[in-house]
Amino acid sequence: MRCSRCSADAVIDQPYRGAHLCAMHFKESVEERVRREMHRQLPRFGRGTVAVALSGGKDSGVALALAHRYFGRRPTVRIVALSVDEGIEGYRSGTLRAARELTESLGVDHRVVSAREEMGTTIDRTSEELRGTVPCSYCGVWRRQLLNRAARDAGADALVLGFNLDDLAQTVLMNLVHGDLDRLVRMAPHRVRQPGLVPRIAPLAGVPEREVYLYARLKKIPFDHGECPYASRASRNLFREVVWQLEEAQPGTRQALLRTHERLVARFLADGVGSLAPNRCRACGEPSANELCRACEYLEVARAASPAPEAS
Ligand code: SF4
Ligand SMILES: [Zn+2]
Ligand SMILES: [Zn+2]
User: Fold this and answer.
1) Are 91 and 229 in contact (CB under 8 A)?
2) SS3 at position 183
3) What is the pLDDT of residue 278?
4) Which pTM was predicted?
5) Residue 267: what pLDDT?
6) Which domains does the chain carry?
7) How far apart, in whole angstroms, are the C-alpha atoms of residue 162 and residue 40?
8) For position 117, what pLDDT does the model report?
9) Which residues of the chain have pLDDT under 70?
């Protein structure tokens, strides 16, 4: 198969746009899509701090490498990479190693936040205490809170997330299926600023997962291939499968889901639907839609289930 733009061999097909691209034109097309999203989601940004959530996987590695490509040469923009160590034995150490390798090669400041230190517990311990639960539910909530706090402490004006087109399409569908309008409105990329919350942006929104993977391989971006031991329990897996099947049958479904989401959010915000996080959590003081934020709710449940220390 030949490249749609030149006579070189194609390395990837893009059924959703009816194209085949060679390595050079593929890399250019990823970089152009990410540059456009970066400027659309973070308009006229020329001064300040950009934090990048870096897990050590391919998506956040590509997000950091491209954020560095666009902002790295500007003396008025500082980039800081933030990783969360949730406490998952046999998994996180490999991803953190890859994260360190990438930040060192780019010369980017790298901070690691530990759930054990900040929350007083780990995902491994909580999953033992709350047997039968899906660890991803509290892991995601705690990670979001730890990243927001770390980004705020770093003085960040925006927090870059490595969500790709597939991730976002799955999340839109999940929130629609659950009828969760508040979460639909709160999804990254953020359109409105809220006190205490660093706006999250998703510059890989236009790039499918397999293209992020190929880009990382072609650009030799270090990333870890390991899979979290709890990943098979995630409820997202069903939505991954459904979106994949829809995309196979009808190329362009993922982009259509994102466009639908954008239009819905614009309408909801105009109508005042989907209050963001108007309160402060009574336990931790973080922005929250309720009296107690979800991170603290999970902490309370885990503490209640934790075995009492033995009397000496
Ligand atoms: S798969 Fe689930 S438990 Fe594992 S890191 Fe991701 S969100 Fe956390
Ligand atoms: Zn080409
Ligand atoms: Zn709280």
Assistant:
1) yes
2) helix
3) 67
4) 0.93
5) 87
6) 31-305 (3.40.50.620)
7) 16
8) 96
9) 273-278, 307-312
CA–CA separation, 118 and 142 (whole Å): 10
Distance from Cα 109 to the centre of ligand 1, integer Å: 25
Q: Residue count of the chain, please give it.
A: 312
Q: Give the count of alpha carbons within 13 A of 111, CB side only.
A: 16
Ligand 1 atom with the smallest distance to the CA of 123 is 3
Measure CA 229 to chain center.
19
CB of 61 shorter than 6 A to ligand 1: no
Helices (H), the chain: 23-41, 58-71, 92-106, 115-119, 123-129, 135-153, 165-177, 181-186, 209-218, 236-249, 253-271, 294-305
Alpha-carbon separation of residue 202 from 42, 115, 140, 240 (angstroms)? 10, 24, 16, 18
Distance 22 CA to ligand 2 centre (A): 4
**Rounded to an integer, what distance in angstroms lies between the CA atom of residue 151 and that of residue 73?**
21
The predicted pLDDT at position 248 comes to 95
For residues 52 and 96, the answer to whether their CB atoms sit within 8 Å is: no
User: Which ligand lies nearest the alpha carbon of 123?
Assistant: 1
Q: Measure the CA–CA gap between 266 and 268, rounded to whole angstroms.
A: 6
List CB-based neighbours of ion ligand 3 within 5 Å. Answer: 281, 283-284, 293, 296
Residue 233, pLDDT score? 86
C-alpha span between 16 and 125 (Å, rounded): 43
Per-residue pLDDT at 311: 47
